[in-house]
Design brief:
Two copies of one chain form a homodimer. Chain A has about 500 residues and is α/β, with parallel strands linked by helices. Chain A folds into two domains: about 270 residues, Aldehyde Dehydrogenase, Chain A, domain 1; about 180 residues, Aldehyde Dehydrogenase, Chain A, domain 2, CATH 3.40.309. Chain A is about 40% helix and about 20% strand. Chain A has 14 helices and 17 strands. In chain A, the strands form three sheets. A seven-stranded mixed sheet of chain A has the order 10-11-12-9-8-13-14, with helices on both faces. Chain A has a five-stranded mixed sheet with strand order 15-2-1-16-17, with no helix packed on it. Chain A has a five-stranded parallel sheet with strand order 5-4-3-6-7, sandwiched between helices. In chain A, helix 9 packs parallel to helix 10. The longest helix of chain A is centred in the first third of the chain and has 24 residues. Strand 15 of chain A pairs parallel with strand 14 of chain B, so a sheet runs across the interface.
């Protein structure tokens, strides 16, 4: 049964109360809350993973790995906030000689936004769902979360939420720091609620854009951190193609069909030199010959996938070189077109096919590559497959312009959670310049506040001169870090 | 003559070309460009300041100070980007033992967004205008700027733009890194232009909100960094009032009338204990007795000011305790109401009066203060006037929630440019969580990009292991700073 609007209002109010109660916690305490949630998830793996498998058709091994990632993420964030790195504590002492005129004592740090609404995705039932990156980073920031369950795995969502709440309880945190709600009406009311101060969203471009518009049309507009997916173009140089064509095609086949192609980082485009279609088709068909398909995540997603692939197949100049199907558990499809067709119809490059399908474009000469890249919209990732002495500087510059992450001789599926990760990219990859994966994701749910000439005892601990919390402080322009951040394993 | 749409398009294209040309510059080179602009402004002070005085009615001393601030800001930003602090260079080496599974080599840094459109304000003809904080931070980030001139000081804008372009030329920078345009049609086309990647705006809530909506409705939405002003409430405790009532009132009178009250940080509300209206009126009238009024910045602003003050004066329960006027050079007006009137009509607290006017609210008991603060919208600043042993923790927490900067026993006018400054605040103070003043303002015009498994020689210098640019690098979670940032004087 879906959350009704009266309950939604009560839930958001309780989340606000929990936020106010919780934000007094010191860094070690908040960090321990995240650890407690991680431990609760770990303890419930035996229940959660089989439930996820039943609702999503994803394999047990994959789901175990995904849960491990989700737990690791919480622990990495716990370590990150324990260090105080995210506070960006900055202290300018009063300075009568300051170049533009006397400077008061001014100290700035980041504070949490408040209640955050999170919309999870269907394709990562752990890592981008109930206790996924958005929830984890919002809690790490010190916010409370009201989470809108994805209808793709309703039972798992409710069960995971119970685990999270038990973890918070066992860790001594206010339990209403996290609450799950269901249904479209509650979702819209969540975006509209005056106490909600930011939205984290992972999903489709259409859905994300509509909610982003809703968030920016409020009486008080709020940030909408939407990860809307992408195409993930891969560019192969002529030299790389000559040197390792079969390896590239085999890697491509594996990456595009991994998890039934239901990744926002699936390689949806492969640019290769002209003239080897028959051979490429042969290699791909052999690489995918033993592929064991599984049902897609939801029926709705299956329908969208089928429509997208059929639409693209029907365009002039597009052929199928791997003939898949649209069974409930579909076999992969690979399409093919010449660059001339793409220059005529650039929209060929902008059609996401969320499932095990991809489009190969044959370019006439390598000099076309930068122009082809110029036809792409914003991407979560782009990839260059090249040899050491290839001249791809122009291409790399263009890809940097349109991408959140640029890979060299790799495949975009697989997004590690780390300090340097950036899972973002220009619109329509995301709606902002931020990342939804990695420690930097925590920053989305913070905002800076400056304190001017405050009595020392009234300053937040992180901004006091004796630095009682031992956080990194930038003092009069110079960073001091009392102790190195401990890397997490 | 206003910029026509065809010229606007050419200008944005030239700005994009200059951006592409300029972004290859190393940190020292870009830093030198900012220094060259600073030197050019300094050299032209003798022309610019009198021109500004003629067009804005602001005094020469004030304008000299403002130009000094503007020049200082460029030099501070030059120093900041020379250090590489803004790049946030983060390196995760490949790690087969990483807790969630093997980690590739992943390196992230900030890159400039591209062409930025800047809309300056009328009230700071140097510091928030042509070469103000938005332009300076966008150039520091590595962006190019197309600047929409404010009609409040058209000649000064054109003349300053010439100085800036000469500075860029003398510094060896692409000249089209900065171009000035004029007129409303060009302004709207600037927000809509596909090559424009962000907007910096300082101005009214209504105008800012409309342009923000426009920016978010583009095919590719772009960030809109709007500083829309505010009310800047000041709260005086009973003890502070007893201890130093006259000092507080004198400080208030000075701050509200400074620069003819035409500051976005003017104290627009003063909350004081009940029962001393007659005395307060006396002190304020004496403090303002010798005030020498100047004309407001523009006729349109004068009209808006007059309407706002008259509208507020007409509300039930509102009296004038300093009877100003609405001459072309108006004398300050101070209004007065009891907190009971405000609890009945909270909108009394939300009426900006852009000019030398302010509203004093008498509260019945100090316990009302937090509730009164609860009626306020987002503020650029709020201030507490209190004694050392006052219990104002709840009030301070509420003010932190709604403010960009919280002051203790000071006045909000005067916004220093420094590392810790935050000139922002929740909507309607600004449209984002960012600052438009201080070194952190540079971050607005950058976005992160991650590079995965790139050959070392193909990585940007800031991400290479030998660290040829000597920038701060976070390596496997631990920050290293090859040399301390040199503080600027």
């Amino acid at each position: 049964m879906n959350t009704n609007l009266s309950d939604l209002d009560s839930i958001v109010n309780a989340a606000q109360a929990a936020f106010l109660l919780g934000r007094g916690a010191d860094l070690r305490t908040r960090s321990a809350w995240l650890e407690a949630v991680a431990a609760a998830l770990e303890a419930d793996a035996g229940v959660l993973v089989p439930l996820a498998a039943r609702e999503t058709h994803l394999g047990l091994t994959r789901l175990q790995g995904e849960l491990k990632r989700t737990i690791f993420q919480l622990r990495l964030f716990a370590s990150e906030i324990r260090s105080g790195e995210h506070l960006d504590a900055t202290i300018d002492h009063a300075d009568p000689q300051w170049g533009m005129g006397p400077r008061p004592d001014l100290r700035r740090m980041n504070v949490p936004l408040g209640v955050v609404g999170v919309f999870g995705a269907s394709n990562f039932p752990f890592a981008f769902s109930v206790m996924g990156g958005d929830t984890a980073s919002a809690l790490a920031a010190g916010c409370s979360v009201v989470y809108k369950a994805h209808e793709g795995h309703p039972e798992l969502s409710v069960r995971t939420a119970e685990t999270v709440q038990r973890g918070l309880l066992e860790g001594g945190a206010p339990q209403a720091l996290f609450t799950l709600v269901t249904g479209r009406a509650a979702a819209e009311a969540l975006v509209d609620h005056p106490l909600v101060k930011a939205i984290g969203f992972t999903g489709s471009t259409a859905g994300g854009r509509a909610l982003a518009q809703r968030a920016s049309s409020r009486a008080e507009p709020i940030p909408f951190y939407g990860e809307l997916g992408g195409i993930n173009a891969v560019f192969v140089t002529a030299k790389a193609w000559s040197a390792r064509r079969d390896t590239i095609l085999t890697g491509y086949a594996g990456s595009l069909s991994l998890g039934m192609g239901q990744f926002c980082t699936k390689p949806g485009l492969l640019f290769v030199p002209a003239g080897a279609t028959a051979e490429a088709s042969g290699v791909l068909n052999r690489a995918l010959a033993d592929f064991e398909p599984a049902p897609l995540l939801t029926e709705r997603l299956h329908e969208g996938y089928t429509n997208a692939v059929e639409h693209l197949s029907d365009q002039p100049g597009v052929q199928r070189i791997v003939e898949g199907n649209f069974e409930p558990a579909p076999l992969p499809t690979v399409l093919h077109a010449a660059s001339s067709a793409v220059f005529d119809q650039p929209e060929l490059l902008r059609q996401e096919m969320f499932g095990p399908a991809s489009l190969i474009i044959e370019y006439a000469t390598e000099s076309e590559l930068t122009a082809l890249a110029g036809l792409l919209e914003g991407q979560l990732t782009t990839t260059i497959q090249a040899e050491e002495d290839d001249d791809v500087n122009d291409l790399a510059a263009r890809l940097t312009d349109i991408s959140g992450r640029v890979l060299w001789n790799g495949w975009p599926t697989g997004v590690t959670v780390s300090y340097a990760q950036h899972h973002g990219g220009p619109y329509p990859a995301t709606t902002t310049t931020t990342t939804s994966v990695g420690t930097a994701a925590v920053r989305r749910f913070l905002r800076p506040v400056a304190f001017q000439d405050f009595p020392h005892a009234r300053l937040p601990e992180a901004l006091q001169d004796p630095n009682p919390w031992s956080v990194p402080q930038r003092i009069d322009g110079v960073w001091t870090r009392p102790q190195p951040v401990t890397a997490v394993r």
